Q: What sequence folds into this?
């Protein structure tokens, strides 16, 4: 019987500094020994978005302590780990440098192999850590910087089926909140306000609905929200709630159409599949209950299993980076050499064309 593989993961691509220790047992099962995340929300909230320079400095200040804490909670020393995995892209370059350099320094000092991990691969493989999901499956990543529908065929084997041609969905929530005077981050605030609102009061556009391509677009929706708000200003609390509910309804309908097509395409492409097909959701927007319900009912209509990892593992964390490193180790990839460079842009599917505006913020994943 062989020992499990043990890895230290490091994440710093956006506004969360994180470190984790994760095991991969010989049967392929994952086990999180520690998972420490320090959010920089307070540092950035005054600016209504992530400020790259502030983020990089905050990562530098917190990283060493977080790594120590992750090792302490896991009850392991650097000698006891088998490898180090650090996010090396995509994301904010200052933060990536901090995490990757820390990973390199530890790998060199402890003489352990280093795995430079794609942050998006971390999101894409999380469902295998939490739910032991087998390949292939479809993944919807909806965060502050990305909105992508990806076919996950295997470790390192991804096909992007759809992406946003302008704003990411989380960004649309954040911008909507900002123009309604709601706090940052906007997603939770819009969701809360929507609870008491009338989703039928404003008829907002459902971008790209009905189109065969599987891409997304949210900037027109944001503009429509601005127009609706300007027309009835000054806004009462009820007006704000009604706009939020109408916005969320438009997003739900859009996702229903786009993802519904994706599920059908998955079934056509993978028709020999013996297992129940699965849709995995990841990213901060996956916390939204109304959107989750839409996806859940869509999956049951199409005979899909709906897999939503716990919220903590849907948002940015280092356990997913550690796990992606373990998956790469187990699949015989890498390790990387110590001259590996951080990359602010690093698509999962290198063959997918870059769409106008896609990832223009380039910051959040
Ligand atoms: O994945 P995440 O934590 O960070 C990155 O973008 O990397 O996602 C943050 C995004 C923000 O845009 C936030 O407004 C959105 O997720 N979000 C939500 C909700 N909670 C967070 N959007 C809609 N509904 C929510 N409940
Ligand atoms: Zn992310």
A:
């Amino acid at each position: 019987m062989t020992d499990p593989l043990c890895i230290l993961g490091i994440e710093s691509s956006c506004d969360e500094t994180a470190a984790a220790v994760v095991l991969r047992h010989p049967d392929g099962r994952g086990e999180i020994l520690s998972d420490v995340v320090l959010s920089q929300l307070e540092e950035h909230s005054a600016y209504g978005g992530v400020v790259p320079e502030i983020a990089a400095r905050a990562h530098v200040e917190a990283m060493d302590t977080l790594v120590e804490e992750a090792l302490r909670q896991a009850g392991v020393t650097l000698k006891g780990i088998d490898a180090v995995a650090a996010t090396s892209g995509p994301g904010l370059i200052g933060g990536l440098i901090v995490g990757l350099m820390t990973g390199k320094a530890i790998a060199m000092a402890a003489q352990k192999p280093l795995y430079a991990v794609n942050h998006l691969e971390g999101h894409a493989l999380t469902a295998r850590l939490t739910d032991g999901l087998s390949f292939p499956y479809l993944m919807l990543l909806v965060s502050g910087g990305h909105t992508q529908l990806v076919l996950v065929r295997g470790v390192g084997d991804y096909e992007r089926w759809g992406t946003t041609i302008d704003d990411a969905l989380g960004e649309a929530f954040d911008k909507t909140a900002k123009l309604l005077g709601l706090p940052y981050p906007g997603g939770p605030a819009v969701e809360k306000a929507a609870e008491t609102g009338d989703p039928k009061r404003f008829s907002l556009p459902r971008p790209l609905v009905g189109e065969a391509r599987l891409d997304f677009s949210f900037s027109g929706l944001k503009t429509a929200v601005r127009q609706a708000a300007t027309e009835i200003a000054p806004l009462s609390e009820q007006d704000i709630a009604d706009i939020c509910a109408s916005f969320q309804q438009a997003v739900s309908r859009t996702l229903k159409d786009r993802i519904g097509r994706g599920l059908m395409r998955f079934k056509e492409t993978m028709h020999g599949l013996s297992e129940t097909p699965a849709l995995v959701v990841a990213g901060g927007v996956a916390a939204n209950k109304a959107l989750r319900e839409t996806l859940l009912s869509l999956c049951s209509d199409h005979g899909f299993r709906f897999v939503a990892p716990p919220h903590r593992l849907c948002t940015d964390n280092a356990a997913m980076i550690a796990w992606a490193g373990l998956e790469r180790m187990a699949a015989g990839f890498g390790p990387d050499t110590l001259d590996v460079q951080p990359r602010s842009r690093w698509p999962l599917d290198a063959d997918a064309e870059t769409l106008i505006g896609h990832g223009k913020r380039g910051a959040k994943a």
